[in-house]
From TrEMBL, chain A:
<dbReference type="GO" id="GO:0030956">
    <property type="term" value="C:glutamyl-tRNA(Gln) amidotransferase complex"/>
</dbReference>
<keyword id="KW-0436">Ligase</keyword>
<comment type="function">
    <text>Allows the formation of correctly charged Gln-tRNA(Gln) through the transamidation of misacylated Glu-tRNA(Gln) in chloroplasts and mitochondria. The reaction takes place in the presence of glutamine and ATP through an activated gamma-phospho-Glu-tRNA(Gln).</text>
</comment>
<dbReference type="GO" id="GO:0005524">
    <property type="term" value="F:ATP binding"/>
</dbReference>
<dbReference type="GO" id="GO:0032543">
    <property type="term" value="P:mitochondrial translation"/>
</dbReference>
<keyword id="KW-0547">Nucleotide-binding</keyword>
<dbReference type="GO" id="GO:0006450">
    <property type="term" value="P:regulation of translational fidelity"/>
</dbReference>
<dbReference type="Pfam" id="PF02686">
    <property type="entry name" value="GatC"/>
</dbReference>
<comment type="subunit">
    <text>Subunit of the heterotrimeric GatCAB amidotransferase (AdT) complex, composed of A, B and C subunits.</text>
</comment>
From TrEMBL, chain B:
<feature type="domain" description="Amidase">
    <location>
        <begin position="63"/>
        <end position="514"/>
    </location>
</feature>
<keyword id="KW-0436">Ligase</keyword>
<comment type="subunit">
    <text>Subunit of the heterotrimeric GatCAB amidotransferase (AdT) complex, composed of A, B and C subunits.</text>
</comment>
<feature type="active site" description="Acyl-ester intermediate">
    <location>
        <position position="216"/>
    </location>
</feature>
<dbReference type="InterPro" id="IPR023631">
    <property type="entry name" value="Amidase_dom"/>
</dbReference>
<dbReference type="InterPro" id="IPR000120">
    <property type="entry name" value="Amidase"/>
</dbReference>
<keyword id="KW-0067">ATP-binding</keyword>
<feature type="active site" description="Charge relay system">
    <location>
        <position position="117"/>
    </location>
</feature>
<protein>
    <recommendedName>
        <fullName>Glutamyl-tRNA(Gln) amidotransferase subunit A, chloroplastic/mitochondrial</fullName>
        <ecNumber>6.3.5.7</ecNumber>
    </recommendedName>
</protein>
């Protein structure tokens, strides 16, 4: 997946606006119109044409989730709709804005790297689907190409 | 950024019409709460009432517990708030009664009947996050919040229904059942903490715990006519809360009064060494905010600066919700607040930024559900197949969709375009809030663009459902505390549908929210948001 993305960067065609299909939105999203008044500048560090539409089968494989063909179709349509909608973030000027990992955080909440024994091991064992005294049983791993 | 509304003694004199275009303000009379002749006095704290009557011997914990269990039995077939009812309720109540009769001390939550959302781990009780992949899973430990409740004598009556793994705004995405709104059984209770909100509204429990990642406590509080309190990120330990989006998740509280929500919050707050994102900030005594009516002066909130967020009253918000919010603003003014309008320019960016961040983080957090160490396993002849089938069959549609969206957004080459960018937008949103809260003590807005809608109405249109979160997600991105309390009714259902006012505070300033919220609630005319009696129930 990573290699494919790199290839896309190398062979990029000139940037084009991501089309946000107005008809996709229901009326309750009318106030999304706001965003056109916010920063019309394109950020220079993102090339929109790099963003290939989602390949649902590949994503499902990466996420280790099996989907039926009808799920791929249904899910796929909805995902593409939502990812298109995410595209509006591309229009915001975020040059020199630091990314916020989370809300304000106090530092120094680290603990000693020392293991502690959890007393209720029986209860943990009771939840394991396939257990063979000491080992969690799983099937073999086949080497993929 | 600030625009002051001119000379007003009362906001209703102002030209709010400019927001409505050619529409006139919906008749104020139609949005005033239905006056129930028997409940003209302001709502009482159930926690304080329970404590008083147990210590005075007026009643026993067993009697209280029995009456709640019986009400649950009667109303559950129609409401379906609970995924599991505890088998130990009467035993725990008896233990409290025995301690009291022996003259031993009992905790501040003794005998209080509490519902817990099913994504919060309760030892020995099923905790499924409303997902098939965790069907029958019984955690080996209590979440810290649950542990604290138990230490204080609280009785966990059961686990409440929710949208699977917190992903949803209606509780329809539960793998097991759909919860009905006690105000109208054909409507949703909101989500994802719909079961917790509805259970308190229907008096199946006194208070309950939920979780709020993008509004999942505040929106159902609005839909069900109860108080929903979202604390500052880090106020309450997340240990034992099944993670959805780690930078956004918090555990929140539901109650029928602001005082109850505040007392429950106090009970579960505090630094926890098992959650390195939990804060070491002092936890103030929230209970002292529940002053009695007699101690109010005529303008008890004099000098409190309130900012009404302009972007939340624009097109796309139901007129009934808008009027209820404006009336609430007038009420605050009458109490002495200085209400002005504020603008948060990055407001509408919050929704896509939130969904990028939440789905990205969830794709990582839900990778632990692989059928190997716990949960439902679908056996296969090869390891990857075992993962794929266990997850494919164990997760519902919305969960799968969000994991895939997150996987896409975090893929190599896309991280900058989506996740990092959303984090940068988050910085912009935080800055806007900080600027507004530098000049105001609290900000107010509706909790949702509409009252509760019909079951099935938004199920197939993800963007329509996401749009309903517009009022709440920015608060999670900024990590701020917020409370929602019922402020009015709009048309719909047998006796109208409740609408909630959201109040947002500065980081760790839950005290101000509780003080303002409590006074607002106690002075609201016709207060007492009680849903209609269920058909076939005495």
């Amino acid at each position: 997946m990573a290699t494919r993305a790199l290839l896309a960067v190398v062979t990029a065609s000139p940037p084009r606006m991501i089309q946000i299909k107005a008809s996709t939105f229901s009326s309750s999203l009318k106030f999304q119109r706001h965003i056109t008044t916010i920063g019309r500048c394109f950020s220079s560090d993102t090339n929109p044409s790099v963003l290939q539409p989602p390949d649902v089968s590949r994503l499902a494989e990466t996420a280790r989730i099996s989907l039926t063909p009808s799920e791929i179709e249904e899910c796929g349509a909805k995902i593409r709709q939502v990812i298109d909608w995410f595209g509006q973030l591309q229009q915001v000027d975020v040059s020199s804005v630091e990314p916020a990992i989370r809300a304000e955080m106090e530092g120094g909440n680290l603990r000693e790297d020392a293991p502690e024994t959890f007393e209720n091991r029986e209860s943990i064992r009771a939840s394991i689907p396939s257990f063979d005294e000491v080992y969690l049983k799983v099937p073999k791993v086949l080497n993929k190409e | 950024m600030l625009s002051t509304l001119q000379p007003p003694r009362s906001l209703t004199l102002l030209p709010f019409r400019r927001f409505h275009g050619s529409k006139t303000i919906a008749s104020l009379a139609s949005s005033s709460p239905t006056l129930d002749a028997s409940s003209v006095s302001p709502p009482q704290s159930q926690i304080l009432t329970t404590r008083r009557s147990l210590l005075s011997g007026e009643t026993t914990a067993s009697e209280i517990a029995k009456s709640y269990l019986s009400r649950i039995r009667l109303t559950e077939p129609q409401l379906k708030c609970f995924l599991h009812v505890s088998e130990n309720v009467l035993k725990e109540a008896q233990e409290i009664d025995q301690r009291i009769s022996r003259g031993e001390g009992v905790g501040p939550l003794a005998g209080v009947v509490i519902g817990v959302k099913d994504n919060i781990c309760t030892e020995g009780m099923p905790s499924t996050a409303a997902s098939r992949i965790l069907e029958h899973y019984r955690p080996p430990f209590d979440a810290t919040a649950v542990k604290k409740i138990k230490e204080m004598g609280g009785i966990v009556v059961g686990k409440t229904n929710m949208d699977e793994f917190g992903m949803g705004s209606t509780t329809e995405a539960s793998a097991f059942q759909v919860t009905a709104n006690p105000w109208d059984l054909t409507r949703v209770p909101g989500g994802s903490s719909g079961g917790s909100a509805a259970a308190v509204a229907a008096n199946q429990c006194m208070v309950s715990l939920g979780s709020d990642t993008g509004g999942s406590v505040r929106q159902p509080a609005s839909f069900c006519g109860v108080v929903g309190l979202k604390p500052t990120y880090g106020r309450v330990s997340r240990f034992g809360l099944m993670a959805y989006a780690s930078s956004l998740d918090v555990i929140g509280c539901f109650g029928s009064t602001v005082a109850d929500a505040g007392m429950l919050l106090h009970a579960v707050s505090g630094y926890d060494r098992f959650d390195s994102t939990s804060s070491k900030q002092d936890v103030p005594e929230f209970e002292s905010q529940s002053l009695s009516m007699d101690s109010f002066e005529s303008k008890p909130l004099k000098g409190v600066r309130v900012g009404l967020i302009r972007e939340t009253l624009e097109e796309g918000v139901d007129s009934g919700v808008r009027s209820a919010t404006q009336e609430a603003a007038s009420h605050l003014e009458a109490l002495g607040c200085l209400v002005t309008e504020v603008s948060l320019p990055s407001f509408s960016l919050g929704l896509p930024a939130y969904y990028v961040i939440a789905s990205s983080e969830s794709s990582s957090n839900l990778s632990r559900y692989d059928g190997v160490r716990y949960g439902n396993q679908v056996m296969a002849d090869e390891l990857n197949k075992l993962y794929e089938c266990s997850r494919g069959q164990g997760f519902g549609g919305e969960v799968k969709m969000r994991i895939l969206m997150g996987t896409y957004a975090l893929s190599a080459g896309y991280y900058d375009a989506y996740y990092k960018r959303a984090q940068q937008v988050r910085t912009l949103i935080r800055k806007d809030f900080k600027a507004a809260l530098d000049h105001n003590d609290i900000l107010i807005s509706p909790a949702a663009p509409s009252a509760a809608y019909k079951i099935g109405e938004k199920k197939d249109d993800p963007l329509a459902m996401y749009a309903g979160d517009i009022m709440t997600v920015n608060v999670n991105l900024a990590g701020l505390p917020a409370i929602v309390l019922p402020c009015g009714l709009v048309e719909g259902g047998p006796s109208g549908l409740p609408v909630g006012l959201q109040m947002i505070g500065a980081a760790f300033d839950e005290e101000t929210l509780l003080k303002v919220g409590h006074i607002f609630e106690q002075t609201l005319k016709g207060s007492g948001f009680v849903p209609p009696t269920l058909p076939n129930v005495a």
